[in-house]
Amino acid sequence: MPATTYMSGMTNPPFTLSRPLAPASAAADGVSQPAAPARPAGGVDLLLIAALLAVTGMMARAIWFTPIEAMQGAAQKILYIHVPSAVVALYLGLPLVAIASGVYLWLKDDRLDRLAESAAEVSLIFMTAVLVTGPVWGKPIWGTWWTWDARLTLTLFLWFVVVGYLVFRGAIEDRAQRARYSAVLGLLAVLLVPFIHLSVYLFRTLHPMPVVLKPSAPSLPPEMLHTLLAGFGAFALLFVALLRARLRYANERELVALAEEAGQ
């Protein structure tokens, strides 16, 4: 295959929630209880299977049916994992954390807190993929596994912020206090995303200028652009599938917690 050069420089909802229920003893005492989520149905997760098949198909297209970039060689094909992972984490996952957190502070709905927590965990998976594939791609191109490049450093810092968000949640036992403090931290975390995007314009950096997410037309040949767009779609579908599975787990955990509280 000839080398090519490019310019660089739900089907069903995951769960349904019943109306707020309270144990008889608590109701008699006038103590309000959080909403009890309905138990989600089990079985095979067809959405997750479809997402994994989509990612596999995209990777097969990238490896065997997308031209090799002339300057970077085969290492450039990491682009089709690295960039979609970054886009899904920074422009889908973390904004969802911020939106759910902000609306939680307004409505005080526990479902939004569970959504923010689940989105943060799934986003962390994709951010980890970014930080792993980046050095693997950078070593043959830059000659080093790591450099304190502005975009790399900011992304690593955001990774630690998300890890801190999740650890912080586990350190607070009071449900309402945990949700409130976590919501504030979730809103603050997303503020780093614009700086990461603009870092290649604001600082001297080894990262090239954007080739797709920029005001002008994408700077990729059609074959590469189509594969990259397929990667965006496949990884977004995988994000939704993982988020849905994580919400199911959050639902089960909430049911167990409510059952334990009712038994006390």
Largest sheet: none
Q: Given the structure, what is the number of helices?
A: 8
Our Rg estimate from Cα atoms comes to 21 Å
Q: How widely separated are the two ends?
A: 68 Å
Helix content: 55-70%
Q: What is the residue-averaged pLDDT?
A: 85
Secondary-structure element series: HHHHHHHH
Content-based structural category: mainly alpha
Low-confidence stretches: 1-32
Number of domains in the coordinates?
1
Q: Tell me, what's the shape?
A: globular
Strand content: under 5%
What's this entry about, in short?
The chain has helices spanning 24-29, 46-64, 79-107, 110-142, 150-171, 175-189, 192-202, 222-263.
Keywords:
264 residues; mainly alpha; 8 helices; disordered N terminus
Structural summary, described in words:
By secondary structure, the chain is mainly α. The protein has one domain. 67% of the residues lie in helices and 0% in strands. The protein contains eight helices and no strands. Helix 3 packs parallel to helix 8 and helix 5 runs antiparallel to helix 6. It is globular, with a radius of gyration of 21 Å. The N terminus is likely disordered.
